[in-house]
Amino acid sequence: MSAEPSMEEILSSIKRIIAEEGEGTQARARRARAAPQPIEPEPEEVLELSDPMPHSRMEPARVEQPRVERDMARVAAPQPVAQPAPQPVAQPAPQPVAQPAPHHYAPEPEPAPQPAQPPRPAPVEPAMSDEPILSQRAAAASLGSLETLSKLLVKPEPESDGTLEGLVREMLRPMLRSWLDTHLPEMVETMVAREIAKITAQMR
């Protein structure tokens, strides 16, 4: 492959072609002015192989002129870059939207009625009896026996009135104190609870 001509060679060829074309145009104009009468056709000359060919100096330039122009156009003009054609984008087909099936809600069962509770019976309090534990006859007999015993065993205290009742009171005082210390708190608590229950029953 032959090396491509440089920019200087291309410009020199262009200048030479322009100069030769200008000289040829001026020569034709001078010949036209000098020969106003029609020129008879000259007999066709037979060219010999040894004779020089006319206008041989201009032929190479005329032949090279298109190549020079192509070289200049190729150097000056940028090569277009082929852009790929855009590919059509395939649109997805619309998918059918599934409709949700209607929900059938079963009615909630009503709560069963609660059976009515029977009323509670009121607490039965024991009946308080006002009757004494001992009968009058038993009390009198016991009192007589204790009086006789006290006269024999117990001497009356100086502060005592000297009667049987005073002697019994003095004898029972220590025992009564001990019994009260043991049983009085429980008795009081029982009586208070009984009264509270009675008041509560009345408020209902």
UniProtKB/TrEMBL annotation:
Biased composition (Basic and acidic residues): 54-73
Source organism superkingdom: Bacteria
Residue ranges of the region described as Disordered: 1-139
Pfam family, any one: DUF2497
Family matches, as InterPro entries: DUF2497 (IPR019632)
Start-end of Pro residues biased regions: 81-99, 108-124
Protein known as: DUF2497 domain-containing protein
Organism, as annotated: Sphingomonas aquatilis
